[in-house]
Amino acid sequence: MCAGAADHVVVTLLDAGAGLTVVPYLQALAQLRGSDLHLKAGSPPRVRIDGRLRALQAPVLTAEDTELMLHEVLRADLREEFARTNEADFAYSPPQGGRFRVNAFRQRGSAALVMRRVAVGAVPLASLGVPAVVERLALEPRGLLLVTGPTGSGKTTTLAGMIDHVNSTRECHIVTIEDPIEVLHEDKLSMISQREVRLDTRDFGTALRAAMRQDPDVILVGEMRDQETVKAALSASETGHFVMSTLHTIDAAETISRIIDFFPPHEQKQVRLALAGALRGIVCQRLVPRADGQGRCVVMEVCVNTGRVADAIADPDRTHHITDLVKEGGFYGMQSFDQHLVALVRDGVVTLEDASQAASNPHDLLVELRRLGLVT
């Protein structure tokens, strides 16, 4: 169960005549500093705190409850789409404040919602504990930068920090294409135009093509979802723009393979050559619990596109060498997950147990820690 104080807040709000709406649960999510709220018929509301899904001490929701909550948050323009597809992604900002990314769906015939709490304004990169090379990559004048990792690994937070770094450093035009908009940015040195799929534009591909006529310097594409989006992003990065985007991949080598696999075999050689020339870097990340119990810290693999990495991208027989090139590329700011984990264990930021669970190769991690005299 979640902490009693927060549970009491939920009960009090419900008993105070607020009605069975989604708002009290969103307030509880914020007070618990959770990341996600899960609402499903037949279960009490649950919140994800530091990676763990925990149940609130609140009434079990009924199908009628979740239908009312869906009706409360679903935009009018998405109701027809949801009725047809039983799926919807959108952003929700309650009158009480806050902003949430919402996925609405049906399970066992009843409505269900997962609502992720997102920031209004970016967290500066310096506060995220990312390697210095990430700040340098964010200021590339042109090319393609990818931030990858599983769902919930903090990709959006990192990208928002990069956009904020550009916004604070360069006088330029930044165009973001998101589904939905998660972090709201204010203009600083840069001018930022934020476009939301289905609200401001039809889809990623359409928005990317239109962006070429909007005099952008930096383009953020929320996610590489299909061949059309990848092709448009590569084209933009080859024509003098700096493009940032995300993929759900676990490391740099898999990221390259995933992009290539979007295309049919007869196009893959050309795509490899284009990617080898346009790519500036790949930042892969995972979240690991902090040893002091104060949340989670980010662990990053960073691949910078040096000449040797570009050769490995262009040659399918050498792509698997990227993993070793990352480990050997410390001079360029590169690091593997396990190298970053060694540093975090050394500094007491994460425990050996949690590091082993997050490591790409737990055995090699332990060998390196023993070599350094950090464990026996």
TrEMBL record:
SUPFAM superfamilies hit by this protein: P-loop containing nucleoside triphosphate hydrolases (SSF52540)
Domain Bacterial type II secretion system protein E: 212-226
Domain of life: Bacteria
NCBIfam families, per the entry: pilT_fam (TIGR01420)
Entry's family note: Belongs to the GSP E family.
Name of protein: Type IV pilus twitching motility protein PilT
